[in-house]
Amino acid sequence: MASSSVQHLIHGEEEKKTQGRKRPRSQQTHVPASPEEPAAKRRKIFTVALTHRMSIRNVFCPRLLCLVGEFLCRRCRLIKGLSPNVPPLWVHKVDMALTVARAQQESFICSGAVVFLYMLCRDTVSAEVASVEELCAVLLTCPYVSCSYIGPEVGYPARHFIREVNRQAFWKRTLNITTRMSQKMLQINISPSVFTQVISDLKNRTDH
């Protein structure tokens, strides 16, 4: 699991959830690091994390998730009557199942994670998807990859994300996403401009 600016962003949001109050400025300007991590690298990681946080400071997580739902409705036009509220509900159900199963201490749904999820969905969900069942199966592979890549837990049980009888289809899709999106997942973590562009595309409904 990569150590990244998106992870710092997610961990920062989790701290605010648990504390229920704004952190002191002294804490906002310091990112704890391991002893062996060079000071220059620590400064770079924090600078990128702060830039990512500033990019989404005026956008609430539920709104971003709704925008992902709207994107999926635009992309999957073959599915008649699909509501933009349905795909986010699938993601929320998985998140709740993980919490109930004690597979995670905190929700994996936060603004930074949703932006990351949107990037994966945009390059994974095809316009050829023709059923709700197929969309659900494809969509839930994306949060599994997201959690595995930037989630705070060491690992996540795949059974909560799998919606197909043929589990091999899920693992094949997971491998495909990981291989195909490796460079983009790295870029969104280290580049403020890439992160800002992705969230801008999501907010402006720029589907490409």
UniProtKB/TrEMBL annotation:
SUPFAM superfamilies, from UniProt? Cyclin-like
Taxonomy, superkingdom: Eukaryota
Pfam families referenced in this protein's UniProt entry, alphabetically: CDK5_activator
A GO CC annotation recorded here is: protein kinase 5 complex
Keywords assigned by UniProt, alphabetized? Kinase, Transferase
> Which InterPro entries does this entry report, sorted A to Z?
CDK5_activator, Cyclin-like_sf
Annotated GO MF terms: cyclin-dependent protein serine/threonine kinase activator activity; kinase activity; protein kinase binding
Q: Give GO terms for biological process.
A: axon guidance; brain development
Q: Where is this region: Disordered?
A: 1-39
The text of the family note is: Belongs to the cyclin-dependent kinase 5 activator family.
Entry protein name:
Cyclin-dependent kinase 5 activator 1-like
Gene this chain is encoded by: CDK5R1
